Amino acid sequence: MVECCIAEDKELCFLYSSKLLELIMKKYTYAILVILDKYGKMRFNEIQRKIKGLTQRTLSIRLKELEKAKLVKREVDSSEPIKVYYSITTEGKAVKNALQILISLINLLDNNKDAYLC
Protein backbone atom coordinates (compact mmCIF):
# COMPACT_ATOMS: atom_id res chain seq x y z
CA MET A 1 0.00 0.00 0.00
CA VAL A 2 1.25 3.48 -0.88
CA GLU A 3 1.37 6.06 1.87
CA CYS A 4 -0.75 9.21 1.70
CA CYS A 5 1.10 12.09 0.02
CA ILE A 6 -0.53 14.84 2.11
CA ALA A 7 1.88 15.65 4.93
CA GLU A 8 -0.11 17.16 7.78
CA ASP A 9 -3.76 16.50 6.88
CA LYS A 10 -3.81 12.74 6.44
CA GLU A 11 -7.56 12.65 7.11
CA LEU A 12 -7.96 14.18 3.62
CA CYS A 13 -6.48 11.03 2.07
CA PHE A 14 -8.59 8.04 1.17
CA LEU A 15 -7.89 4.66 -0.35
CA TYR A 16 -9.51 3.66 -3.61
CA SER A 17 -9.70 0.55 -5.72
CA SER A 18 -7.54 0.79 -8.80
CA LYS A 19 -9.49 -2.17 -10.22
CA LEU A 20 -12.74 -0.19 -10.10
CA LEU A 21 -11.07 2.82 -11.70
CA GLU A 22 -9.72 0.58 -14.48
CA LEU A 23 -13.22 -0.89 -15.03
CA ILE A 24 -14.79 2.55 -15.26
CA MET A 25 -12.32 3.53 -17.99
CA LYS A 26 -12.71 0.33 -20.03
CA LYS A 27 -14.36 0.58 -23.42
CA TYR A 28 -18.17 0.25 -23.34
CA THR A 29 -18.51 0.59 -19.55
CA TYR A 30 -19.91 4.11 -19.83
CA ALA A 31 -22.14 3.16 -22.77
CA ILE A 32 -23.64 0.22 -20.85
CA LEU A 33 -24.32 2.37 -17.79
CA VAL A 34 -25.94 5.13 -19.87
CA ILE A 35 -28.14 2.69 -21.81
CA LEU A 36 -29.31 0.92 -18.64
CA ASP A 37 -29.99 4.25 -16.94
CA LYS A 38 -32.09 5.46 -19.87
CA TYR A 39 -34.04 2.28 -20.62
CA GLY A 40 -34.18 0.53 -17.24
CA LYS A 41 -34.24 -3.28 -17.11
CA MET A 42 -32.90 -4.77 -20.31
CA ARG A 43 -32.02 -8.17 -21.67
CA PHE A 44 -28.57 -9.03 -23.02
CA ASN A 45 -29.43 -8.77 -26.72
CA GLU A 46 -31.30 -5.50 -26.19
CA ILE A 47 -28.18 -3.95 -24.69
CA GLN A 48 -26.00 -5.30 -27.48
CA ARG A 49 -28.28 -3.88 -30.20
CA LYS A 50 -28.08 -0.39 -28.65
CA ILE A 51 -24.25 -0.19 -28.69
CA LYS A 52 -22.41 -0.24 -32.03
CA GLY A 53 -19.38 -2.50 -32.25
CA LEU A 54 -20.06 -4.29 -28.97
CA THR A 55 -19.52 -8.04 -29.35
CA GLN A 56 -21.33 -10.70 -27.31
CA ARG A 57 -18.07 -11.71 -25.67
CA THR A 58 -17.16 -8.17 -24.63
CA LEU A 59 -20.68 -7.46 -23.37
CA SER A 60 -20.69 -10.67 -21.35
CA ILE A 61 -17.32 -9.86 -19.78
CA ARG A 62 -18.23 -6.24 -19.08
CA LEU A 63 -21.61 -7.14 -17.51
CA LYS A 64 -19.90 -9.67 -15.21
CA GLU A 65 -17.33 -7.05 -14.19
CA LEU A 66 -20.02 -4.43 -13.60
CA GLU A 67 -22.12 -6.88 -11.59
CA LYS A 68 -19.11 -7.85 -9.45
CA ALA A 69 -18.45 -4.12 -8.83
CA LYS A 70 -22.14 -3.68 -7.89
CA LEU A 71 -22.72 -1.12 -10.66
CA VAL A 72 -25.16 -3.40 -12.49
CA LYS A 73 -27.69 -5.85 -11.10
CA ARG A 74 -28.55 -9.17 -12.79
CA GLU A 75 -32.03 -10.59 -12.26
CA VAL A 76 -33.28 -13.99 -13.38
CA ASP A 77 -36.98 -14.35 -14.18
CA SER A 78 -37.64 -18.05 -13.62
CA SER A 79 -40.89 -18.19 -15.58
CA GLU A 80 -40.83 -20.22 -18.79
CA PRO A 81 -38.75 -19.43 -20.73
CA ILE A 82 -36.14 -18.21 -18.25
CA LYS A 83 -35.16 -14.59 -18.89
CA VAL A 84 -32.21 -12.61 -17.53
CA TYR A 85 -32.45 -8.85 -17.06
CA TYR A 86 -29.79 -6.28 -16.26
CA SER A 87 -30.35 -2.94 -14.57
CA ILE A 88 -28.19 -0.14 -13.24
CA THR A 89 -27.77 0.14 -9.47
CA THR A 90 -27.72 3.30 -7.39
CA GLU A 91 -23.92 3.05 -7.30
CA GLY A 92 -23.86 2.61 -11.09
CA LYS A 93 -25.94 5.78 -11.52
CA ALA A 94 -23.55 7.67 -9.25
CA VAL A 95 -20.55 6.54 -11.33
CA LYS A 96 -22.33 7.43 -14.60
CA ASN A 97 -23.30 10.86 -13.26
CA ALA A 98 -19.78 11.52 -12.00
CA LEU A 99 -18.36 10.64 -15.42
CA GLN A 100 -20.84 12.97 -17.12
CA ILE A 101 -19.89 15.83 -14.78
CA LEU A 102 -16.18 15.26 -15.47
CA ILE A 103 -16.80 15.19 -19.22
CA SER A 104 -18.83 18.41 -19.01
CA LEU A 105 -16.01 20.08 -17.09
CA ILE A 106 -13.43 18.89 -19.60
CA ASN A 107 -15.60 20.22 -22.44
CA LEU A 108 -15.83 23.63 -20.76
CA LEU A 109 -12.06 23.82 -20.49
CA ASP A 110 -11.26 22.49 -23.96
CA ASN A 111 -13.43 23.22 -26.99
CA ASN A 112 -11.44 20.81 -29.19
CA LYS A 113 -13.74 17.81 -28.82
CA ASP A 114 -12.30 14.94 -30.83
CA ALA A 115 -13.74 11.73 -29.39
CA TYR A 116 -16.79 10.13 -27.86
CA LEU A 117 -16.63 8.33 -24.54
CA CYS A 118 -17.86 4.77 -24.97
Automatic annotation (TrEMBL):
InterPro entries for the chain: HTH_HxlR (IPR002577), WH-like_DNA-bd_sf (IPR036388), WH_DNA-bd_sf (IPR036390)
Signal peptide: none
Record carries keyword Cytoplasm: no
Keyword list, A-Z: DNA-binding, Transcription, Transcription regulation
One Pfam family, short name: HxlR
Top-level taxon of origin: Archaea
Protein name per Swiss-Prot or TrEMBL: HTH hxlR-type domain-containing protein
